[in-house]
Design brief:
Largest sheet: 2 strands, antiparallel
CATH superfamily: Transcription factor, MADS-box
Number of strands: 2
CATH class: Alpha Beta
Pfam families: SRF-TF
Radius of gyration: 16 Å
GO molecular function: protein dimerization activity; RNA polymerase II transcription regulatory region sequence-specific DNA binding
Distance between the termini: 52 Å
Helix content: 40-55%
Order of helices and strands: HEEH
Main location: nucleus
Strand order of the largest sheet: 1-2
InterPro entries: MADS-box/MEF2_TF, MEF2-like_N, TF_MADSbox, TF_MADSbox_sf
Domain MADS-box: 1-61
CATH topology: SRF-like
Number of helices: 2
Structural class: alpha+beta
CATH architecture: 3-Layer(aba) Sandwich
Amino acid sequence: MGRGKIVIRRIDNSTSRQVTFSKRRSGLLKKAKELAILCDAEVGVIIFSSTGKLYDFASSRIVNILKSTE
């Protein structure tokens, strides 16, 4: 038997929301790194927190491609 469907909605408690963001952010960045390594893919991820702080990941080839297009 499969899992039940969950409702995706904004977390009202700001502390819980920040903790969830931090955990999800690190998981997403880890998956992006794994994808770039395992599949030899060009991956770029940009994340902005609710406070406006920037978090990013880019495989080395993406960085080179972006620099060459400037």
